[in-house]
Structure formats: structure tokens, C-alpha cells
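lol ok so funny story. i was supposed to be doing the assay writeup but got distracted and ended up predicting the structure for this chain instead. priorities right. anyway since i did it might as well share w the group, maybe its usefull for someone
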Amino acid sequence: MLRAIRVTGPVVAALMVVVLLFEPPALRPSDRIPTLHVFRSRPASALDRDAIEAAIAEGRRGQPTAYLLRRVLPGGGSATGEAAGTVYTPSLRVAWAAHAAQRAGWVLEPEDVPTWMTAPLLYVALRAPLEPGDELPRLAVVPTDATISCRVAHPTVVRPLWRSAAGAITRFGAPPPFPDLGLVAAFPLEVVDEDVDFVAYRCVETAEGMTAVEMRGRATQAERARQPRTKGDSP
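and the output, tada:
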């Protein structure tokens, strides 16, 4: 599957056409996120009406369940109990929007849900590898046995469709998941078909030369199986 993503990724990207630039007033120009319609077999929306209604009902019942990326410390090994990031599937974005609407005193209806919110994308939010700054950290998606180096180029399984700051989360009603949030990025749903690590990193100068300081979160089959799913959350 990883090989398939490497091969098909550039083709899929070439088929994407930006048809709307959605920018709420709260977002800075650097936080703009285009709404993408992809001309391929997958529809522009990953959720049908039943799935949207189910996600809205979940948000009305209470705060949506977090889909966590478990932190992996430098040197590899198993994921820890600490969270390095969180993932927002299409249904989770709708659920958060419904939850925020209810807290504000109004009801989100299926007709109110914009297409960009249900697009077949995962929003991945990662904590900062160092103190958050004005510049977003670098980002890589790698197999779980891959190391990150600032000295040599390394492959990434798939590149993000876009990268942004906290505004990408708050625009659908969710609060920033971490006080040290580093970046938010969007990926095709297929990126988590297999176990992978999402790595936010910065290159810093040390006595040993340029070294990658990383925040690595692992997406595993076990964690995905634990999450409540609706129809559109599975590629």
C-alpha cells in the first residue's frame, strides 16, 4: 500500500483543481486552506447524508472522541502512552462542528455542513518538536522503522496537501488540542491504511552537527480500530 501511495500520489495531486478559497476572517493569509474537488472515483464528500447525520448526533451527545497519535521517542521502539498528535476524520470534523454549535445555542443541520468539512481528507495535528514559533516545523510521513536525518535526504510516504497552524482546527469548532501545537496538515484518507509515523521536526545545530529534533506520532491499526467510525471514515 505504501508503494501504491508513492506511485499514485503525484497523479492524484495533478488531478486536483482548486475551485474555492475558503478564508474565515479569523484566519491569517498564511492559514488559508483551499477547498479541493478531486476528479477521481472518490466523490468530493467522503460522507453521505446518513453519515453526516450520525456525526452530528455524536457531536450533540457530547465532546467527540479524540483519535490520538501515540508518541514514539527518538530511537524508535513502541509507542508510549503520551499523545504526540491527534487526527480529525471527516466525521470527527462534523461532530466537532455540531458540538460547537450546540454549545453556542443553535443546532447544526446536515444542510449547514460545507463540502470542505466532509472532504475525504485526514487533518493531522502534531505537537511542536521545540517551542512553537512563527515558522511551521518540517513534516514527514515515514514507515515506523525509518529515522529522520538532517544530513541526508529521506523519502516521505506521502506529502501533505497543505500545512497550516491552529486556525485549521478552530474553523470547524474544535479547540487547539495541545498548548504546544506545532502544525496541522491534510492527507488523503489512505495514508493510514498501514502503520506509519507522522513526524514534525526541526533541524538544530549541535556539537555533532545538524540534528533533527522531532515529535513523532504513530498511527496504528489498533488505535484506528478503537475509534468510532462512520461510513466515510474508511478509505
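The two ends are 12 Å apart (CA to CA). The CA atoms of residues 164 and 184 lie 5 Å apart.
back to the writeup now i swear
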